[in-house]
Amino acid sequence: MWKGSVVRNRQKALNPRVVLVQQLAFLILLIGAWQFVSGRLIPPFYISNPLDIAGVIWKWLADGSIWVHVRSTIVTLFMGYLVGAALGIGLGLALGLSPRTERIVAPFIAALYGLPKVALLPLFVIFFGIGLVSKVALVASVVIFLLFYATLAGVRDIDRDMIDGLRLMGASGEEITRKVRMPAILPWLYTGLRTSLGYALTTTVVSEALSSNRGLGFLIEYSASQFHSAGVFAAVVVLLVLSSAIMVPLGMLERRSKPTRLSH
Amino acid sequence: MTDSSRLWLQRAILLVAILAAWEACARLVSDRWISSPVAIAERLAQWMAGDLWYHMMITGTEIGAGLAIGIPLGVLTGMLLGRSKRMAAVFRPFIVLMNSLPIVALTPLLIMWFGLGMQPKIVLVAFVSFLLMFFNSFSGARAVDEELMDTLALMGASAKERFVKVVVPSCLTWTIAGLKNALPYALIAAVIGEMMLSRNGLGHLITRSAQQFDMTGIYTALFVLMVVGGLINEGTTQLENRLLRWRHLETRGR
Amino acid sequence: MSHLQLIRPEPATGATPARRRKISLDKVAVDFTTRGKTFRAVDDVTIEVPEMQFLALVGPSGCGKSTVLNMVAGLLAPSEGSVTYDGAPVEAANTRVGYMTQKDTLLPWRSVADNIGIAFELRCRKANAAERRERVAEMIDLVGLKGFERHFPAELSGGMRKRAALARMLIYEPETLLLDEPFAALDAQLRILMQQELLRLVERRQMTVILVTHDLEEAVLMADRVMVFTSGPGRIRTERDIPFERPRNAMELRFRPEFSAIHEELWSELKDEFAASVERERRAQ
Ligand SMILES: Nc1ncnc2c1ncn2[C@@H]1O[C@H](COP(=O)(O)OP(=O)(O)OP(=O)(O)O)[C@@H](O)[C@H]1O
Ligand SMILES: [Mg+2]
């Protein structure tokens, strides 16, 4: 009858206000300690300090120079993501619907999947030159596999018996797709799309850091190569804002619609 | 039996066909961009007689040392923080933020701090694996079945005993899921670190070849990385199957 | 605890002399708040269970029987009134009771044998490996799970899981048993066997028991006293002593005319509550 815990109403519930105050206190303490330690215990060369970092961010915002990089990162991210997702889902559907072929090529795909994709970047740079295309190709190469496997799992999740049953009841192919196939695949697709976005962002930033002249990844790498630690941290903060703006809403979505499976 | 041997035969034929087509293309058209399977095999043999093992050792050490630091720390802090209601509530937003940040973006910073050697890669691998394991065991500790905790409490189990007998094993599923991410990610992180700035390691093999426009070298290094990555994936899957037998039974039973 | 209390009195036969009060609920009420609405699950319940008594609680689904057990186990605090055990208020998990919850709470990553033996791994009940193995084998035999020692809970049927949970609780012989539908998932034959086994054990060890069941027959067969709950909020509608001798033979008891008489008498009370609960649920929809 009662779900979850055998009741624990003896424990006092947390006061959300107190929690908020504690969170703020932690944040202030962290930033304060950083400011204090820098230059006293640790040379600012290594960890810069919050005031300098804020100053750099302010300068970037004031002269607008940051937007080139933010825009570049966003463009690379979404182009790579879309290309990779389209290819991955297409491949997943194609092979999912022809299981015999899928069984033959499975080990080849698994082998390619095991390769750390960033290692392909030099190859892509030689093929496509330094610029948007090689970065997009790299991001897509990461996303393809994730969505391929997600789609495949979704196709496998389709309940054959249920389809047979509906056929017997005289359902049309289109009805079966709508009532059985789509509902089986969609949760997997959703999970695949969500997790691969994180990987796509990581890959974008890394490809920018490795070979590019714009983007937040480049900004981090460039500042580091100039030993300009305030610049490094400032770029990381901007990246953090961008990444949480993209990822956090997705995380919240996830909590509302429960995943059907743990993981694949 | 016959079915599976036929499958493997088909795969072998496919592989041979791909390699033959590749080789043919290289011979008949040009091997400037695509090198050729024979050249790659030759190069691999050459490397294996030469410094391949040295570079592998470097990457392996970076991964091993990083994981040895990151995994236990991540698992433990995740479980402890996850079991404390207040700590979990207070730190949740910070955890969510960290979770969304691409951690490898910090590689340049680590290189700036620690320089050229293995150190920045070890720290990077440790950092990445710490976070991945932390997120997983934190969620695992939050998802512990409270009724199991109560059952043990009624038997007279102390808080420590409940932690060891209920929280730790029920986090294991999550920990394994974390490992499945962390191990391949450790290789990725080490390779990224090596590609960014290094004089050795498997990532360095790639950048070295690329700088010389040595296509055969690039493909050979990619092949090596593919094998290493495949072995790591296979290893984690085996580990998972061994440790989580009860879990597989459970999901199959449904 | 004084030493005197460790020496159990003679087993009771027939009429019970005044015994020490083991469990007592005094004017207890429980409110739950779900989705912002507060409702009363249990209201004005007073129960006194003397030492070594076997009490059965029956009532329609959702009337608060499990809630009562949770309070005795110390997992739930009453909103009003008080719960005491051995004269002391119950304020934390009550380690003197063995509680078999309605949902079996076997640890899914442990085999049957490792689940059953877990109590002996705890510091407070530590036993060496040989002793543990012997006791586990004994219990596995008792609940008829021989041959399934190495199985995981997921590989067992619902009834087998219940029996494993029962064995895990009985193995450390708690002085008081709280049993929430222990035999619900068993088939009729196995159920009778298990009832008989449990009776034997309880009588031999002179345990105090609260048994929650949907099955009135089971209640009358096993208990010294039966309480009928009203459909929510749970109150006590009637209680009745069951005068059969101890040790009991549950197998033949059920064919006696006195048994049928008592069963019928309680059934007429319970029937109304079932009807009321069905009606209430229909209205709620
Ligand atoms: N933790 C809880 N939170 C909210 N409501 C609860 C909780 N536990 C029980 N209830 C409610 O209290 C009432 C009594 O629940 P309880 O589990 O005690 O019933 P029960 O008599 O054991 O029923 P059953 O015979 O079906 O097991 C029910 O209406 C139930 O929904
Ligand atoms: Mg109940």
From TrEMBL, chain B:
It is found in: Cell membrane. Residues 52-237 form the ABC transmembrane type-1 domain. Its main location: membrane. The keyword Magnesium does not apply. It comes from the Bacteria. GO terms for cellular component: plasma membrane. One of its GO terms (biological process) is transmembrane transport. Keywords: Cell membrane, Membrane, Transmembrane, Transmembrane helix, Transport. The keyword Transport applies. Pfam families: BPD_transp_1 (PF00528). The chain crosses the membrane at residues 63-82, 94-116, 122-141, 214-232. It is a multi-pass membrane protein. PANTHER family: ABC TRANSPORTER PERMEASE PROTEIN HI_0355-RELATED (PTHR30151:SF20), ALKANE SULFONATE ABC TRANSPORTER-RELATED, MEMBRANE SUBUNIT (PTHR30151). Belongs to the binding-protein-dependent transport system permease family. This is ABC transporter permease. It comes from Aquibium carbonis.
Automatic annotation (TrEMBL), chain C:
SUPFAM superfamilies: P-loop containing nucleoside triphosphate hydrolases. Keywords: ATP-binding, Nucleotide-binding, Transport. The keyword Magnesium does not apply. The keyword Nucleotide-binding applies. GO terms for molecular function: ATP binding; ATP hydrolysis activity. Residues 23-256 form the ABC transporter domain. InterPro entries: AAA+_ATPase, ABC_transporter-like_ATP-bd, ABC_transporter-like_CS, ABC_transporter_ATP-bind, P-loop_NTPase. Pfam families: ABC_tran (PF00005). Belongs to the ABC transporter superfamily. PANTHER family: ALIPHATIC SULFONATES IMPORT ATP-BINDING PROTEIN SSUB, TAURINE IMPORT ATP-BINDING PROTEIN-RELATED. This is ABC transporter ATP-binding protein.
